[in-house]
Amino acid sequence: MNERQQARRPGGRSARVAAEVHQAVTDLISEHGYGKFTVGDVAARAGVADSSIYRRWGNLETLLTDVALTRLNARSPMPDTGSLAGDLRTYAAAVAREITGPEGLALVRLAVALSSNGPQGLQARDDLRDERTRQLQSVLDRARERGEDAPDALDVLDHILAPMYIRILFGMGPLTPEYVDGLVDRML
Amino acid sequence: MNERQQARRPGGRSARVAAEVHQAVTDLISEHGYGKFTVGDVAARAGVADSSIYRRWGNLETLLTDVALTRLNARSPMPDTGSLAGDLRTYAAAVAREITGPEGLALVRLAVALSSNGPQGLQARDDLRDERTRQLQSVLDRARERGEDAPDALDVLDHILAPMYIRILFGMGPLTPEYVDGLVDRML
């Protein structure tokens, strides 16, 4: 494999399989919804063996959260602007943009689906939450290291993220920049 | 019908039918989940004609929100304690108790289901939201009439209700009295 191929296909075969499986999951969610497809359906759609999925992800719930986390990290990455206000405004704006789109309720739907899917579902939900909380915590830790007075990650969840999600869930959008910045300013 | 019968069966036949239909909906949600049953299923279970349901509720979505609203009004009624702080603490505590229970995600599930069910679903979701907002607004209006400095209903949604719902959705309970009172105190 030459350098150009590596750049185009980082990680090689394993990464290609992951991308195909992720795409299959995204398609199946969009076409059928959560709880309406199995690991076998994902495998068939992605053109891989069931065992490849079980070996890599363990179960469907873990795969679903991996797909969601990959999407979240791509669309609403944790920013590093050099100031807490800048980071929180950038992050809140990215989340607002994401959840105002056609797939806006994706994370809420996933959490609802996982919450009603036994211990594996609850574990996957908790892992997803913990991973995003850990990322947010690193933003807040950086602010504290710069000497800024940073809130707790749970405060950001409660008073910046939760209001935006609930407004979208109950059809109270759009989330204007004034509204989103206002949530951040109120916290700071 | 004598007075004792009236007290036992307020509204007579119409109320009995409504109660049976509501119970049928509750059972079907619990057994099958949203999106997995029709008006015909509800009618069969309640022992009434489909046409009785259509005549009274118009469609399944309106019936679902009627059931949810009846439950909300019974379990988390808007209080009237004589002070804004008392009203908000009482209301927040009732919501926290309700959503910490086994049916905790019922309202979130309903909102998700209605949000993906076309114009009738969106209308029913909006009606449900508007009715509860109207009730909350009357609590806030009473506070203003007493000369208290009351927040907007949307602020209560954003900073008292939304955090509690999102914490339950992501498995971050229990909602302790200290936490719930803290949300109210922060707002006041």
Architecture overview:
The structure is a homodimer of 188-residue chains. The first copy, chain A, has 188 residues and is mainly alpha-helical. Chain A folds into 2 domains: 58 residues, Homeodomain-like (Arc Repressor Mutant, subunit A), CATH 1.10.10.60; 130 residues, Tetracycline Repressor, domain 2 (Orthogonal Bundle), CATH 1.10.357.10. Chain A contains 10 helices and no strands. In chain A, helix 5 packs antiparallel against helix 7. Chain A is globular and about 50 Å long. The N terminus of chain A is likely disordered.
* Overall SS class of chain A: mainly alpha
Name of the CATH homologous superfamily of the largest domain in chain A: Tetracycline Repressor, domain 2
Distance between the termini of chain A: 50 Å
How would a textbook summarize the main sheet of chain A? none
Query: Which pair of chains forms the biggest interface, and how many residues does each contribute?
Result: A-B, 27 and 27 residues
CATH class of the largest domain in chain A: Mainly Alpha
CATH level 3 topology of the largest domain in chain A? Tetracycline Repressor, domain 2
Oligomer: homodimer
Tally the helices of chain A: 10
Q: Kindly give the count of domains of chain A.
A: 2
Mean pLDDT across the residues of chain A is 91
Keywords (chains A, B): DNA-binding, Transcription, Transcription regulation
Organism (chains A, B): Yinghuangia aomiensis
Protein name (chains A, B): TetR/AcrR family transcriptional regulator
DNA-binding region (chains A, B): 38-57
